[in-house]
């Protein structure tokens, strides 16, 4: 290592500004990363240099030559120089000292970046965005620092060196030791974590405008961190072509679904004669997702006669010279090869980039220009609209690739086998029964490979043009996305590819496009005439304004010109301003009324939003507005969490029951009846709800009726079936109950969720303390169940209810109404029980034990072979993490047992752990074991301990697990007997305990790669390690317990599992838990 890197890094442990702490963290951690990476590069370079030397000697002399064979200095002066070996023991100790001091500095830093900068962050936890939270970055820095200390302790610990027999003089042995203790995969993960943290910190500083950014050179160095492919070797790869093949359950011979992924057998049947169209549809359906067309359809269509200038031919004239040059450049690019494969449309927020992109994508002139470019060859066209407010796929690389592939392959289905050769071969060999059990899980590498194969096959005979809007709304590495599109245009068929991209003029795009002479246009400089046309047409739709324009043309024209000039190229500003002018227009005051309204509007968008939402409303109106926007945000959070794309936006019908309720609603909630709602009531609710949205959204929300593609038709109790009711031709709007309520523009959402949560805090302050949007939406679902649009039908098709059940239960889990004794908590429990009771009424049961919730635990075949599910709905609420409900329900059951004179002993309080621990041991509680013993609540509470994968259930809740551990009952028939109680596993049908299940989860998670190195997520290692610790300290879990061997792993003790995790991940939280287990076991 270079001398400069060998010195300890001076860290001032006195309290300092958080920004300085984070900057110092990157300096220290970055130096450690470079040292660790150098260890592996040195080793790789030795081998590569030796191979290059041998090749050079062979080429020069035709033989081995006279080289000394050490690979050094034998490949000429151009040979790469070896990097430093890394760090020795002394350097590791110096790094350790610096990191320990850094931990102290982080601990004494301000708890909030906003406080350090003189601002206050009152962001509600449920609405916070961890990726933009400066406090979360600071916490992540502390976590990485502690993990690095664990890694370094392994390296320079005296006991480890003695065990390895390493001497100070044996530098090569030290390097080899470092490579073993700090594997390449671990170093690769460290580099990725540092890069992501630097990006998050930089983006947070840009959004907050607080000047908390890192040194530019430092940020640039981390943003370029690309670990060599050799270091990335060993990273677990996904299944071939996205086909997920699960592992087998030991001893059963059956497939084990991996985190909600459907199973497919390993056996391959004889090739069946399946029509090609069925296989093509199978892959196309797998590529499709519910929201893939939503954003494109929601983008505002271009106003009449706007944007036509972009197709202007050379020599045309327009009202502005700028428009002429912009249009000519784009048309020239579209029709010929001379300007390169990329075109960049940049523009301010709200300038109309998405509208222009949609205009170009759909316009016939685009097709004509592309035909001129292709010179007789066919042209395939595809588009994608990133949407930061949409589903995960709408803002991800996988979503982009899936939709582009879907469009291109739908147009040329014969290329599907070429794009997915491995997948095609496999499904072609399956029977229909096998194929319907397959679940396609797409990864970015799979899709990239398929996209490359498709272009290689398509471009020799056709041209391709892509339109991609909103690169700035991509949720990932923008530099990597830019490189992806550049690479498409730089390939061997680059002259047959055109890609039109749009984004905000961020530095990363300016550097990539503008600075490299890629043709572009600035939209805000070219749309004055378009905005004037829109403003004029919109104002004249009001009859009084139209009369005024005829009466005073010069004054009116000046007003329109002034409106557009104040917009400064931002189309959204004009739209909101014109709406407000019309709304506030007083015909009796004439032009003065319009001029006064215009003068009152701020010129900046954020200030305009502030005025519309907060300043122009009374306190009562603001309370209604705040409730509306909190409901919208609550649904966004829940739909994103359970990955339900069709539910990301609320529908009008859902809001109709979520807003302020009536006495009739309260009566319906309390009563057992399920009755069809009448047409008149439907119309009345629709009118009141849409009027409420228009009046209280300040023009920042819109209602969008999905067409043929959305999944929203099922939302809210099948509103699409409302067409069967007699609504009458007089009220056609009643058929739009499933219309989605969306933001009018991305900038609105950015403003609402940005600014360190200040806007959200003001909205929350504007509502009553008792208002809980998640409880309101749970209430809405129960009411819609009780008052369906169609005649109630009792049946056993749980799939029809399940998507809404999952939403409602997750809203309940997200609720903040959990304080003991509060009215909100009592209401939450009542609503959850009402949901259960209503679905139970609708469920066509076969016997008293046939509860609908049993269906949520597996197929009929699985349930018939498994032990009984006791209290299935309560078990389901545990799975969904409804801590407050579970606590209240268990306590109510205990009270009922006491009142009935039950002999059950209720054990509660801090002494529970000792009681549970008294019978600890892998063979403990043998007398309590029963072949029909149902799965205890603790097992359901820890079912998703380390990873959610594709499940909609949340990760294990530490508070819920702690409650169950602290309140067990020794009763054999009780649902919560303690961590060491033996029961029959639901899937394997073998005896186990909740504690052994946790240990096996950890062992399996390590093998499957579900755990992360340097896990900085709040829901990551710190959470699940805390759960394990609580099992030991609160529940008295058997620290000597043994996890039996299976097909993949040998038998191992609980301590052995933790040792494996420490060895693999070097995680500080796991190391602390391991130490607790060691102390409890009396070992060292």
TrEMBL record:
For the region Disordered, give the residue spans: 52-87, 113-134
User: Which InterPro entries did the record assign?
Assistant: DUF7791 (IPR056693), NPHP3-like_N (IPR056884), P-loop_NTPase (IPR027417)
Keyword list, A-Z: Repeat
Domain named DUF7791: residues? 626-786
Query: What are the Nephrocystin 3-like N-terminal domain coordinates in residue numbering?
Result: 321-504
Which ranges are annotated Gly residues under compositional bias? 60-74
Reading the lineage from the top rank, the first entry is: Eukaryota
Protein name as annotated: NACHT domain-containing protein
- Natural source organism: Lasiosphaeria ovina
